[in-house]
Design a protein that fits this description.
Structural class: mainly alpha
Largest sheet: none
CATH architecture of one domain: Orthogonal Bundle
Shape: globular
CATH class of one domain: Mainly Alpha
Oligomer: single chain
Distance between the termini: 38 Å
Radius of gyration: 16 Å
CATH superfamily of one domain: Hypothetical protein af1432
């Protein structure tokens, strides 16, 4: 791989040791889906595959370990600490950089923002975000099909993203969980983009 000195097999072995079986299958599925989406949108498929493999590298770390790494090495907004479910994203980017020597800013940013996203995401960041949500190994097939249909439409990336954010917001409300402000901001940004088409 051009973006790390490690072979794919070495990365897969590290993931097998550090993830549970379902999360490992999810990571492999995300990598394959990211590669497929990269082909579709004329992006670097090797880069997408690596980002997909490593996007959840820290997902099975205990919350205390995630917070310890963040406090020692990573600057994040305090509101990001509201949900332990998203702490793995910045730590996974840190792991990609420190464990696997990934220096490519596009890969690191896509991993960093694959959970909550950010305003003005690049197409590469969007495909990693979406691949995480629609990979075939562990994600709900009906949900994935609904998102995939949108990808074939004009401005499909933004339409698919907007649909993901709608599902996320509804799910958070139904579970009485907090919605971080970036989620609302990104949702509003996407709504505006789609309404102006």
């Amino acid at each position: 791989m051009n973006y790390t000195k490690f072979k794919t097999e070495e990365i897969l072995n590290w993931l097998k040791k550090n993830l549970n079986e379902k999360r490992y299958l999810h990571s492999v599925g995300t990598a394959q889906c990211a590669k497929e989406l990269a082909y579709k949108y004329n992006l670097d498929s090797e880069k997408a595959y690596l980002a997909g493999l490593l996007h959840d590298a820290a997902k099975c770390f205990p919350t205390e370990k995630l917070l310890s790494i963040i406090d020692a090495h990573i600057k994040i907004e305090e509101q990001e600490k509201l949900s332990y479910k998203t702490l793995h994203a910045p730590v996974s980017a840190y792991i990609a950089q420190t464990e696997f020597g990934v220096e490519d800013k596009g890969i690191l940013s896509a991993i960093r923002w694959h959970t909550i996203g950010k305003i003005n995401m690049s197409d590469f960041e969007k495909i990693i975000f979406l691949a995480d949500k629609i990979e075939p190994n562990t994600r709900d097939k009906e949900y994935s099909q609904n998102i995939r249909k949108l990808l074939d439409e004009n401005n499909g990336l933004d339409k698919a993203l907007l649909k993901c954010y709608k599902y996320t917001i509804i799910s958070l409300v139904e579970r009485d969980l907090r919605i971080c402000m970036p989620t609302i901001d990104i949702y509003n940004e996407l709504e505006q983009i789609i309404s102006e088409l």
